[in-house]
C-alpha cells in the first residue's frame, strides 16, 4: 500500500553517511597517534594518501556489483572461482569480517572503560552495545539507513563545534618544518589508515539494496574525500595543539577535547565526545553485523538473515573478548597486523575477483 | 452450576433469536411482526409499541424508543396526519410515503434486522397490516451536547470551539470547515452491542486511496462487544501496538482535523466521543501545535523549536543528572559541582534512588490532581508540591537540586501539544534514569540509541514514523523543525499528499511594492 513497504531499500545518501561514519568513528580516536609514528609533522598529509585505497575498493565493489547485479561478494565469488572454492573463501571472508567487527567492539569497550567507566566490567559494556546493534540489525537495512540519517548530522555538528572550541589552543607554527624528510614519511604514515579505508569494501553488501539509478560513484567519491579531509583536519589540529607531544598520547583527540577550557565554565566537555563517538561506533558495529549476518545467510543459502543476527551477535561478544588479552595487545594489533589483514581481504581478494571476472567473463544463470 | 448452565442457555437463546430474525423479512401480518419485536425487546421498558388505525380502518403500529424520538413531531406529523386521514387508497406503502407523511426522512425497509437497527438509532418504525414493508420515519432526537472549548488543546489565537460527543455535530462542524464535495465521509458501524457509528473522512482528491481502503479493512476487522471511545479503535488498528509511542494522533480541535485532511491524511470520527483520530502521522505531527500556523511564522518557528528542545530535555535531564553526579563527577564544572555536592551532603539516598522517588511522587501528584474533582484537585497540587516538597527539602530527604531537576523535567514535558506523546516521554524517562544510574553517560546514550532504533522501525499506517527526518526529505523540514511562512509551504507532505503535490500557487511571497507604482 505504501511505496516503501515490503521493499527494503537504502538511498545513496544514507549509504554515504553510514560509510563515512563507519570510516571515521574508530579512526578519529587513534588516527593521529598511529600516523604520527612515521609521518612526524606531516601527519596531516597521510589520510589523503590513505584514501587512495578507499577509492580503489569502492571502485571494485561498484564494478563487481555492476557485473553481477543484485549480488554480494559472497554470491559472485562462486561464479568467479567456482562453487566450492568460492564457498571456502567466502567462509573465511565472513570470519574475517566477524573478527574485525569484534575487534571494533573491543576497541570501543576498552576506550569507554579506560576513559569513563573504570569500574564497570568489560562484558557489560560490550553486551550493552551488541544488544543494541543486534536490535538495529534485526530491524533491517532500511532502519540502519534511517539511523545513519538520524544520527550523522547531529554528530557532525557536535564534532565541528568541539573542534572549533579548540581554536584558542592552536599554535599554527607547530606545523613547521614541513616535509622535513621529503614526502616519504607521509606516505609511510598513510599505511595503517589504508586498512581502515579498505573496510569500505563492505559497500558490496549494501549495493543490492540501493535504489535503482542512484549516482553512487559521485557520492562515494564525495564520501571518501570527506572522510579523508576530516581525518586530515583532526591530525592537523592535534599537531597544532600538542606539537611534539602527539606520539606520547594514546587517544590524542580525547586529550584535545579535555584540553578545552573556555571562560572556566565550558570545560570537561569530553562527555560530548563520548556521546558522539559511541553513536558513531554503534553505526559501524551495526554495519559490520549486518554484513556478517546477511553474508552468512547468502553463504548458507538461507532466505532470511534475521534469525542469524542474534547468534552472530553472541559470537561477536565472544570474539571481542578472545581477540586480545589487553589494551596493549589490541593497539599492537591495530598498529601492525590490521593493515595486512584488511588489505588481503578487502583489497587484494576483490581485486583478484575483479580480474578473474574480466578475464573469464563468467555467465550468470538467470532463472 | 445448574444456574450457570441455565443462564448460558438463556443467553444462547437470545443470541439465536437475533441471528434467526436478522435475515427474516417483514411479514404482511401485523401481529406476527409485533410479536417478533416484542420478543426481542422483552424487558425493555423504554420501547414503546403504539397501535392505531390509519384513516379509522387500517391497522398500524408504531415502534420506537421512548426518549430518543422527537415526540412532538411524531404526534403532529405522523399520528395526527395518519389518524385523521380519510383516504382509502392508503394500502400502498408508497402512497403513504408520497402523500400523507410530511416528514423529510422516510424510507421503506424490508427486514426485521433493519427495523432493529433503526429502532436503536431512535427512528420510529411504522408497521402496517397487510404490507410486507415497514416505514422508517427519521424523527430521532439525540441528546445533543453543547459545542464547547477544546479544553485539552487551548490556543491563544484560533478558533475556540472543539468537537463534542455527537457524531452528527462533529461531522457537520467538519463540513462547515471544508465545504468542498471532495470531503468524503464514509459511515461504518462497529461494536457488536454498542453499534457505534464510525465515520472515516478524507479528501478524495488528496488522500491515498489505497490508504483509505487499508483503514476501512482494518476497521471492518474489529469485532468487539463495544466501542466506547476512539481509543478502543486506535489500539485495534495501530501498526505496532506494543510501542510506547502513539501512532495515531487524537485531537478535539476541528481546525487541526481540517488541516490534516488537507495534507492527505485520514480522520476517524467515533460517535460518543469528542476525540477524533488522525492517521497516518509522524513523530513531528505530535509536536506541531495549531498555534504555530496562526501566529506569525517567526514566532511559530521559534516556539516549535523551543518545544522540541524542551521535550528532549524533559526526556534526558533527570537521567543526565543522575549519570553525571554518580559516575562522572569530573565532567561537572567545579563550581557547579560544589553547590550540587553541598545540597546532596546530608541526603540519605543515592542519587538514583532519590531521582526515581522524586519522579514517582511527581507522577502520583499529577495523577491525583487529574482524578480528583476539580475543586479538590488544585488543593492537592498545592499541598503536594509546595508543602510536602518544602518540608522534604528542609527535613533533608531530598536535595534542592533534585527538586529543581524534577520540576524542570515535569514542566518541560507540559510543552507537548499532544498528551499521548507526553505519556511516552514520561515512561521512557524512568528507563533512562535507570540506565543512567547503572551505566552512566554510556547508559543514557544506549537508551537514546535504543529509542532511535525503535522510532526508525515504527510506522504509522505504513508511513515511516520519523519522516521527514529519516528517511530525510530536506524540503519538508520547512514544516518540521520550524514552521516556514505560508508562501513557502507550497508542497504537501510527500508521503501522504504525493498524489496532489501542490497545495497552493507558487510565488505568493508578498512583494514590497509601494501603492500606485
TrEMBL record, chain A:
Topology in the lipid bilayer: Multi-pass membrane protein
Keyword Transport: yes
Name listed for the protein in its UniProt record: Germination protein
Keywords associated with the record: Germination, Membrane, Transmembrane, Transmembrane helix, Transport
GO biological process: spore germination
Family: Belongs to the amino acid-polyamine-organocation (APC) superfamily. Spore germination protein (SGP) (TC 2.A.3.9) family.
Annotated GO CC locations: membrane
Protein location: Membrane
Main location per the UniProt record: membrane
The UniProt record lists the keyword Transport: yes
Top-rank lineage group of the source organism: Bacteria
InterPro entries, alphabetized: Spore_GerAB
Transmembrane segments: 12-38, 44-64, 84-104, 116-135, 147-167, 187-207, 219-245, 265-287, 308-327, 339-359
Automatic annotation (TrEMBL), chain B:
Keyword Acyltransferase: no
Transmembrane domains' residue ranges: 305-327, 377-397, 403-421, 430-455
Domain of life: Bacteria
Region of interest: Disordered: 1-22
Keywords, ordered alphabetically: Membrane, Transmembrane, Transmembrane helix
Sequence ranges of Basic and acidic residues compositional bias: 12-22
A cellular component annotation (GO) from this entry: membrane
Keyword Transmembrane among record annotations: yes
GO biological process, one term: spore germination
Family statement: Belongs to the GerABKA family.
Listed PANTHER family: LEUCINE ZIPPER PROTEIN 4 (PTHR22550:SF5), SPORE GERMINATION PROTEIN (PTHR22550)
Protein name (database record): Spore germination protein
Record organism: Pullulanibacillus camelliae
